[in-house]
Amino acid sequence: MTISKNKVVSLTYVLRLDDAEGQLVEQTTTENPLTFLFGAGRMLPHFEAQINGKNEGEQFAFGIPSENAYGAVNEQAIVDMPIDAFVIDGKLATDLLQLGKVIPMRDQQGNTLRGKIVAITEQKVTVDFNHPMAGKNLHFTINILSIREATESEVAHGHAHGPDGHHHHH
Questions:
Q1: Who is most buried in 6, 82, 128, 137, counting CB within 10 A?
Q2: Model confidence over 48-68: pLDDT tens digits?
């Protein structure tokens, strides 16, 4: 069976930056593979394009340049916030104020954003709300473990329901 729309694909991947020798970002194992409904629009389109038509047991690698992955770094997503924004119950939240720390925040619409603290001065804190992979070129090494037809309910819901069809993660 080859990968096409409405197939449920299980695969392992190794994600590195730039190329096969690049910094390791993430790695999945055969015990805990990535399982997803192909063609449902939940993965990067360029990721799906690269695995389209592949067969079970195939191993291959490909790169996705940043503009086809999570986009360029958006300078407007790097914002300075007054240090007062980090005062909780009258005192500075020093546990939050650490360089490199990722903190969940809400925007005006109430959406949760993840911001990474990139600079701290006495007056302000600079927070970067870009996706952590923005501006980065991705390199995937893929091993296709299994391919199966999606069930009607998986197709209706637009996602795979796990190996035995009963897992719901919302």
A1: 128
A2: 999 999 999 999 999 999 999
